[in-house]
Write a structure and sequence with these properties.
Two copies of one chain form a homodimer.
Chain A: H1 5-27, H2 34-41, H3 45-48, H4 55-76, H5 83-99, H6 102-110, H7 117-144, H8 152-164, H9 166-169, H10 178-193
Helix pairs in contact in A: 1-2, 1-6, 4-7, 5-7, 5-8, 5-10, 7-8
GO molecular function (chains A, B): DNA-binding transcription factor activity; transcription cis-regulatory region binding
Keywords (chains A, B): DNA-binding
Organism (chains A, B): Pseudooceanicola atlanticus
Chain lengths: 195, 195
């Protein structure tokens, strides 16, 4: 079947990302070669370079895409005015978004060490923008008196680590559904910050 | 200077572990060869096999040593009878122990994927023993009425993820000392579980 270069490219680029994501998550960035990624996609190694200049760009693209998706999905949620309601929405959103993307989350944390300085700065800035949305809720809650935390920035890091930690043990086949886990974590988050 | 085989071995084995720890943390287990580890230690690759049969054994040994140290250090702390005091001790101990060993902590979480099944089961059993010490404090606290959590096991995972998360952002040169961070995290942990 004849395919135009455009449609071919449109199909291949996402497949390269998907293959790289899976291989990096399984073996680690440093252990995976462009040749292995090409083999997983089913193209010649040389053809890969039509889509991506090098492995570092691929890693940074994967992390950027993950954080762009995160920021976009977060921005699409209506932000409720009440800080505790906004915090509940954040908690449930964060758990669900991350539980659905274990490979991307794993790479986003673990392969920071392999980013070159410019890419690292870009990725950190995106991550910081996401963290800032939680800090803003906590500061807002301090303003209304609903929230009392010693340090909103540290509380942000603590809550995000606690919620992302679900990924280290959650299995779809476990004793609790993700809905039940959301409920339990919202209970803990609420108590952690409530005045 | 003449050295006996015994003293040589006693000196080399820890240096192999130290080199492997550092290389695995920087590049990832899968990307590091026994040859690179030997070069870092300053011995021939062949000599390495006098100390360690293969890279998998080395990885499992590193993780086991980390968790043995953790369990030993934890067991050395007097366990206070009051559950909230015991929880405070756990919180401060966990943060300090992990902040002092960023490479070992990084590997203990990140390289689980590279453990063969028998090693994985052993490492998970050790980790579970440590987690159980926290769950026991929470259950104890539920008994005295000091603690109210929906699910002691989930609260255990949440607290450990929150506390270990300090490692992802803490720098000795930052605006807060580790003592101050301990205080803030103890405040959050207390509120998270207090009845």
């Amino acid at each position: 079947m004849a395919r135009t270069a455009g449609s071919h490219s449109a199909l291949t680029a996402p497949r390269i990302r998907e293959a790289a994501l899976s291989l990096f998550a399984r073996h680690g960035y440093a252990a995976v070669s462009m040749r292995q990624i090409a083999a997983e996609v089913g193209v010649q190694a040389g053809a890969l370079y039509n889509y991506i200049p090098d492995k570092q760009t691929l890693l940074a693209d994967l992390m950027r895409a993950h954080l762009d998706d995160l920021l976009e999905a977060r921005a699409a949620l209506p932000l409720r005015a009440d800080p505790m309601q906004a915090l509940e929405d954040f908690t449930r959103f964060h758990i669900r978004f991350h539980a659905e993307r274990p490979d991307a989350v794993f790479i986003a944390y673990m392969e920071l060490r392999n980013l070159e300085p410019d890419n690292f700065a870009q990725i950190e800035a995106l991550r910081r923008r996401y963290e800032d949305t939680l800090t803003a809720i906590l500061v807002d809650g301090q303003g209304t008196g609903a929230v009392a935390v010693a340090d909103p920035r540290i509380a942000t890091m603590a809550i995000i680590a606690m919620l992302t930690g679900v990924n280290t043990w959650f299995r779809q086949t476990g004793r609790l559904s993700l809905d039940e886990i959301e409920d339990i974590y919202w209970g803990m988050t609420r108590r952690l910050v409530a005045a």
